[in-house]
């Protein structure tokens, strides 16, 4: 685990207070795979209000030095996103993360973020495996996923995209970050 990833903290996302910040992140051209390019501020508020009210989906902001640095979503794939697309196992947790575009990229930052996100998910002893379903065209996130121990299983068709269903066990994550 990188030093940077251990410096992150997390807080629940506030859909109203954080909507303007998120709007800038999710509508940026570099966030095309987030599929909110044309979202208005109200659309972002509404989307995250729905998540805040959902017992099976949670959004957190990752903070660096107390300032928002990335978005993390945790969901129950037996109830959201992947229902009917694979057979969930006990301890499966779904995950999305978004690192906003920046004028001054820091080498290794996004890898530190995904490492911190995975460590956060595995802090829960009930989490046995993390499930992701990124767009098949998102080669950058496939590489990041592989770096933290994800193993692709197969392509699946979701209503909004063709996705690469991938899994990361606790042991796979620990091996990947120890390497």
> Into which percentage range does the β-strand content fall?
25-35%
How far apart lie the N and C ends? 9 Å
Q: How many beta-strand elements?
A: 7
How is the main sheet built? 7 strands, mixed
Average predicted confidence as pLDDT: 92
Helix content: 25-40%
Secondary-structure element order, N to C: EHHEEEHEHEEH
Query: How many separate helices?
Result: 5
Contiguous low-pLDDT stretches (5 residues minimum) are none
* Outline type: globular
Q: C-alpha Rg, in Å?
A: 15 Å
- By helix and strand content, what is the structural category? alpha+beta
Physical arrangement of strands within the biggest beta sheet: 1-2-3-4-5-7-6
Describe the structure using short key phrases:
single chain; 179 residues; seven-stranded mixed β-sheet; alpha+beta
Explain this structure.
With 179 residues, the chain is α+β, with helices and mostly antiparallel strands. It has five helices and seven strands; from the N terminus they run E-H-H-E-E-E-H-E-H-E-E-H. The chain has a seven-stranded mixed β-sheet with strand order 1-2-3-4-5-7-6, sandwiched between helices. A hairpin with a 2-residue loop joins strand 6 and strand 7 (161-169). The model has no long low-confidence stretch (mean pLDDT 92).
């Amino acid at each position: 685990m990188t030093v940077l990833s251990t410096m992150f903290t997390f807080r629940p996302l506030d859909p109203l207070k954080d909507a303007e910040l998120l709007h800038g992140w999710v509508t940026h051209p570099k966030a095309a795979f987030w599929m909110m390019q044309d979202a208005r501020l109200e659309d972002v508020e509404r989307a995250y209000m729905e998540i805040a009210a959902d017992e099976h989906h949670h959004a957190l902001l990752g903070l660096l030095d107390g300032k928002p640095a990335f978005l993390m979503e945790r969901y129950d794939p037996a109830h959201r996103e992947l229902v009917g697309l694979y057979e969930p196992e006990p301890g499966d947790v779904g995950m999305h993360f978004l690192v906003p575009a920046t004028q001054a990229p820091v080498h290794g930052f996004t890898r530190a973020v995904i490492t911190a996100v995975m460590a956060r998910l595995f802090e829960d002893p009930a989490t046995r495996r993390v499930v992701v379903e990124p767009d098949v065209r998102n080669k950058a996130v496939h590489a990041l996923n592989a770096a933290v121990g994800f193993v692709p299983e197969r392509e699946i068709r979701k209503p909004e995209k063709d996705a690469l269903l991938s899994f990361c066990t606790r042991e796979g994550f620990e091996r990947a970050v120890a390497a």
